Amino acid sequence: MSTREERLLARVALTWLTEPGTWSVHRLVQQLGPVAALDLLLDGGAPDRRLRETVAARQPAGDPRAVAADALARTERVGARIVTPEDDEWPAHLDDLRQLVLGGVNRRVDLETAPPLCFWVRGGWPLGEALARSVAVVGARAATGYGVHVATEIGYGLADRDWTVVSGGAFGIDAAAHRGALTAGGVTVAVLACGVDRPYPMGNAALFDRIAETGLLVSEWMPGADPLRPRFLIRNRVIAAVTRGTVLVEAAARSGAAQTLHRALAMRRPAMVVPGPVTSAMSVGAHELLREHREARLVTGVAHVLEEVGRIGEDLAPPARGAERPIDRLDDEAALVLESLPRRGSLGVDALAARAGVDLRTALRKLSLLEELSLVVRRDGGYAVAPSPAPGTAARPVGAPAGQPPPPGPPGRAAG
Amino acid sequence: MSTREERLLARVALTWLTEPGTWSVHRLVQQLGPVAALDLLLDGGAPDRRLRETVAARQPAGDPRAVAADALARTERVGARIVTPEDDEWPAHLDDLRQLVLGGVNRRVDLETAPPLCFWVRGGWPLGEALARSVAVVGARAATGYGVHVATEIGYGLADRDWTVVSGGAFGIDAAAHRGALTAGGVTVAVLACGVDRPYPMGNAALFDRIAETGLLVSEWMPGADPLRPRFLIRNRVIAAVTRGTVLVEAAARSGAAQTLHRALAMRRPAMVVPGPVTSAMSVGAHELLREHREARLVTGVAHVLEEVGRIGEDLAPPARGAERPIDRLDDEAALVLESLPRRGSLGVDALAARAGVDLRTALRKLSLLEELSLVVRRDGGYAVAPSPAPGTAARPVGAPAGQPPPPGPPGRAAG
Q1: Mutate which of A137, A298, A307 to disrupt the B interface (most B C-beta within 10 Å)?
Q2: Is the distance from CB of A101 to CB of A22 less than 8 angstroms?
Q3: Range of A14's domain?
Q4: CB contact (8 A) between residue B287 and residue A276
Q5: Could you report the per-residue pLDDT of B206-264, keeping only the tens digit for each?
Q6: Does the distance separating the beta carbons of B287 and A275 come in below 8 Å?
Q7: pTM of the full predicted structure?
Q8: Contact assignment for A291 to B301 by CB distance below 8 Å
Q9: Pick from B277, B290, B294: which is nearest to A146 by CB?
Q10: Whether residue A271 sits in one domain with residue A199
Q11: Is B106 part of a structural domain of the chain?
């Protein structure tokens, strides 16, 4: 049996070796635990070619275990801590990300949306508590005065009602939302696409310092990690997944912020959009979302936002996910078998059992259950995902129970 | 048999005697023709107490036939003409207003939404042709610079693509839409709530003159009629009914312009709303409509508007009304029986036959058809409107065939 320290080190090494969000790594860790999963990958035993190549490409950069040990030391040095699913403060509902697994198109950020292996956190709040009653406010970096005004108002209003404001720490709308929350004396969380010791952009350094003092800086990447471009999109799934709903204020056509809203829509979380002048290029993306998605809700201020998230917030129940579907009641093994099916085409039961890491008898038993629920069909002598129902399984939260409201002020609890 | 002149005079007298939009008058005219309907009313034979009182209250103001004769002379003097359902230029689809009959609440403007008895028209275009490819653009009088800009752009863009721009001639959005159309050299129609010889507001006098030169001024009220407050709301049903769709640009909370959009929604015409800054009081009503009505469509410019109305515009088919319902196939007598049922409670078959103006045997035959179509149920020994299906009957257009596109320029045809 591995120690907690060994498992922590393995998670950090895996994050560095394979980038956050990789489904095959997530599955391996669920099946084998992080230590054995790391061993397997380093021995060249990755279950698919792409992952084997990723691991092989990364190894010349250093010994993953040594890199991880360095990262642990640096984490302590910069006053941060690592939070894993084993910890009480792990945020609830991250497993709703499973609902995104089959919904993607071709880009990596659309395909690789697995829950994080661990978070780096700077700030005094227990992560799960800070996020239990939270709303994401996201939008354009090149925001207009109008957008900044509205985002500040919404950030202020949410914080004033004891909701945590989550955003990405970027210029423009993100910064305005954080600032609004800070002005109200509330809690705000910046989810970063780089190390928590060097939050990006530098121009927001003073803002990040204030957030770390009274709220949290959070990242899936180790201290020192660069804010590489794809990481922003990988990060966006976390912003959508850890909050009760996402509000978009200003977005140009096809923006990253709009992509965060798509994630919220896919997870059936309230997806809210603030309209703006039709003459503003910075509202084009917002209006597109409202035209294209019936489920996207037009909101004009904090009262409307609270109407959407408050329904589920007042009683501290878990986020609404629409009517319960068969898929929501699957046990872990059945979910694993379902997830192990290829997105296209079919797979024989032997290969499927191996891929899911269950024995043949279990695979057959779970497949017959899945067939009964119309989630799986027999095809070409094997099994395939049934064409129509919405994908994903909503497993139970991994760590702490959901829905603890944040205490009235920062807990002053020592970091680490 | 009455002459055309007698029928025209009777329609004018009825309009003066009972205000446009009164359903019981509309039904009497359908049953008896305008001349006999007028005789009946003047003899105190109105079918319901409210109408009897209305007629009695009006009569001291003058002999209705003499008032109508004066109105005919004045119509000629001011260079206007009267258009009735007997004329080729009567607009198509006005009978869609029947879809509003059972949908109202308590106010007269919500209950009395019958098609007009006649129109006064100033301008060279045949009325039906000018309206065959038309879009309504309506909104706040106290418009902002933003709203005026957007309404002008949409008015221009529509006219530029040979769509007629219909509005109410008011300050603010209405005037901007008309001006945009005029600037593009297109056709625009102002539907007024007062006489076409003294269009209101006076401040738009120069605008009205330009509209009369190249487009049309239209009213249900005789020359000299005052723009009384309730008339604006009565007028709004016409703006929604004669156009292929209605665009709302700026509205304060609970505005008259929003009511026009409700009419369009009730008739299943495209109901389009331009969003604005959430910080603007003049967009509050627009955003409310978008939040409350799933069918209301967010549009940001003329391209989106054409997408909505163009589907039905390109092939000159009649406006889309959703899937055909049983109610759409009713013959006139069945529709009459259905319309004669009280909005609440039930009515015995004898009373119902009398009210509908059909004999007992016809009433029973039509009731059994309506029962079969689930439009009517037996209750308390009588008949009542069935609770669920959408109300109204979409009768065939009364006058000219629909869908004649306007010729490229004003026809220069003599008015009258």
Answers
A1: A298
A2: no
A3: 1-72
A4: no
A5: 999 999 999 999 999 999 999 998 899 899 999 999 999 999 999 998 788 888 999 99
A6: yes
A7: 0.74
A8: no
A9: B277
A10: yes
A11: no
